[in-house]
Write a structure and sequence with these properties.
The complex is a heterodimer of chains A (183) and B (327). With 183 residues, chain A is of the alpha+beta class. Chain A is built from six helices and five strands. Helices cover 31% and strands 15% of the residues of chain A. The chains are: A alpha+beta (183), B alpha+beta (327).
Amino acid sequence: MRDGPENETTTDERHSSRVAFEVNGDRRELTLDNRTTLLDALREHLGLTGAKKGCDHGQCGSCTVLLDGRRAKSCLVFTVTVDGRSVVTVEGLAGPDDLSPLQAAFVAHDAFQCGYCTPGQLCSARGMLDEVARGWPSAVTDDLDSPPELTDAEIRERMAGNLCRCAAYPHIVAAIRETATAP
Amino acid sequence: MRPFRYHRPADVADAVAVLAGEPHAAYLGGGTNLVDLMKLGVQRPELLVDVTRLPLDTVEELPDGGLRIGATVRNSDLAAHPAVRRDYPVLARALLAAASGQLRNLATTGGNLLQHTRCVYFQDTGKACNKRDPGSGCAALHGQNRDLAVLDWSEQCVATHPSDLAVALAALDAVVEVHESDGPRDVPLAALYRSPGAHPERETTLARGALITAVRLPPLPAARRSAYLKVRDRASFAFAAGSVAAVLDLDGDVVRDVRLAYGAVAHRPWRAYRAEEELRGRLFSPELAARAADAELAEARPLRHNGFKLPLTRAITVRVLSELAAS
């Protein structure tokens, strides 16, 4: 278990906590300053630099991970609150030697330019497709009582929490559409 | 950010007792507003009491036909709940119009109601703000006030309440269940929020340390015909430039009952009682809806940059009611 850099920011025992949680299937345990966000714990303490720090205020979505299977912005979550919970980052979406269908579709559709927002886009899209499978409506769903159909308008609305400074949006929509409709 | 201690309470009584004994403590719900404000230095708690694991995360259909929503039910779960979608579409629509998918997965019912204004002067510790720093003045009053209040503001504060959920709850006559150090109490949503007056730092009527435990919706069969219309500067993921929650009950073409509440116009979600009075018992028409909105906004005092909110609020009133009447 890594131990080290977190102590640099730990003020004292009253302001730090021992936190145990699962990351991409592995149990991790850290002693952290309570101020440490999940994003900083992943990047600075666990060496998982897939999740990106964009705005650090919950507005850009580049830090999106799956928390207990649901997409969340890791910059707004204090790590101390995820004790006992499970986190999946972009590193955990597929094995080291292959791509998930969603990742393959992003490559096939050229759904990025600089790639900085991509890990967040991928985790968000993964969580979003699960929400659709559960029948959750969105702001653009006409009928609240019927299962939503994943139109392009639905994809755009549901992915509104992820900004792409390169504006690869049309290709991101195409990649997600293909993943959703794949046999 | 100031270092803070962290406490995960065993139950509601423990949460309330711990907070009561700490002058600089705060409850932590989904954190989507509080964590941000802590990063900005606007909020500086020394202790966070994490209430998200308390057993307050269920939605219960009540025998009288109403609904009881636990305080830690996440916004996304509430919007997707079958009873909400069926019986209170205005509530589902308000939730879905707010924030983003990732934020709705974190944000709680209680936390949403107690979130703070997004007035940029409140969020900037380098600017005067009576809400953040009582007595320091209001930089927004003569500053960039396009997003701020047109109704019920004071010289001390022109902030608006940012919640969409609260606007829907205002229209539905929701009751907020709170736990204070001397026990539980019911607070009608209409009595939860304060006008800014001389003390904008006091945002609610709750005692310090009060914990919201649930929100109760009374049965309202007419709410099956209800809607939330929100206008934003961009298509999604933005706070309202104007919003309206509406329930319309027609007997033929005559308005038997109506509930209207506005967002983005005041320091609190604004229940439009005057507009409702204009509408009730009359033959519905878009012209009547416009007159009703005008009656509600008669005492509005727009600021330098937000005069547009009056015709905007009028227009969305006409549109939402006309659409409900035609549905």
